[in-house]
Records
---
Amino acid sequence: MENKPAIGEGALNKVKSKSKARWEILRNAIVDKRLVGSGDITFIQSVRRFDTFELFTRKQCTCVLKPDKRSANKKKPQCSWFSYICEDIPFSKEVWIQHLFSDVNLKDILSFNNTGNVCIWPAEEVLAYYCILNIDQFHFKSVIELGGGSSSLAGICIALNAKSPKQILLTDGNKRCVESLEKTIEMNFKNKKNINISASSLLWDDVGTYQQHKNAFDFVICADCLFFDKYRQSLAETIHYVLKSSGKALIFAPRRGHTLAQFVDISCKIFSSVTESDHYCPAIINKHETEQLNNDSYDPEIHFPVLVELIK
Ligand SMILES: C[S@@+](CC[C@H](N)C(=O)[O-])C[C@H]1O[C@@H](n2cnc3c(N)ncnc32)[C@H](O)[C@@H]1O
């Protein structure tokens, strides 16, 4: 008879609490009577169980706001802007990001593409860190971020840290995200008139929203956008359309079931080169190993961002 290794009580409890947490989230989604695809389910599982690799130090702005006399909330209002500093990389500049919601529910998360309004997802944080670490490739180049959410942290970091970038365009399909991106640009670049940075609404499944950008960009960057079952094909086609010949896309996303693999399959039919990497940066690997050891809620399958590089 095969000898199976005995599973200790601690490990058993860990497995039980993970599956209980997952089941509760799924049960809520079902109770919410929403139809969700398999990609959405892997996304729901990750929501708020693990939210940062702590690659940036965040500090809330301490400016004093006047209380709103009409509001029933008598609490002292707090500024919604946070400074983000990447202390590991000494030359990196401070970024200002607005936090939109203090509380969210599943409805907010699942209703058409409010996912970018919820928070900065760990993949965006990793993308931003990776871009600052490899900033040389972006000097004098044009960069578009797709599905940047309400922060486009990575695109903003490139704009602040690269030498004379030719153009930075931050995009998302959700109107609230685009409004927030416009405010973020205003906040970070109000005294820097000689930078070409803007935000616009761009929907992967509507070529009318991006036809003016054909073969326009040296780089596409994108974080945590591969789990939408409905849009994987159109996302890959959009990337191909907006890239210059030999342009490169840097995409970070967790595996989330088959979602990343399916995107890679689609991309192999469209791009001249497609590579996938888990070991793209020693600092992130360290963080990942520490979380695996110390954090019960951390599940690499849905939280660890893999790098997919596409060359046109
Ligand atoms: C999980 S969020 C990621 C946001 C940001 N990159 C981050 O990681 O913090 C996915 C983003 O994709 C956007 N999105 C989803 N479907 C889209 C579509 N068809 N066209 C354009 N953007 C879309 C959503 O609005 C959302 O901001």
---
Amino acid sequence: MPTSAEVIQMAVTAVTESAARYGVTDTTVAELRNRIHGKPGYAEGYLNGNLTALLVRIADDHHTDCDEPICRTCDNLRDALTIRLADMTTDPRMRRPRPARWPLQG
Ligand SMILES: [Zn+2]
């Protein structure tokens, strides 16, 4: 069984390889890292909010484009949305009378 450090390293490697295939540059990563550096609360909300918004955009775009009865992307998006929704609905901030402001404008 891999250690947690090994799991993290495998995840970093997988994300790095996928990001390279999509043309993510070190410069854009550094710009985002500098934007959130030293602001842990802001960073968490900003990153989670943006990742959630991107997940929904990808899922909605794919749903519009896909009419396959069996699709690995649909299966993966369903799993990702399930995980995200389970996480969001256990977050005490989501139980406020008014939802937290979506941190897209950061
Ligand atoms: Zn699909």
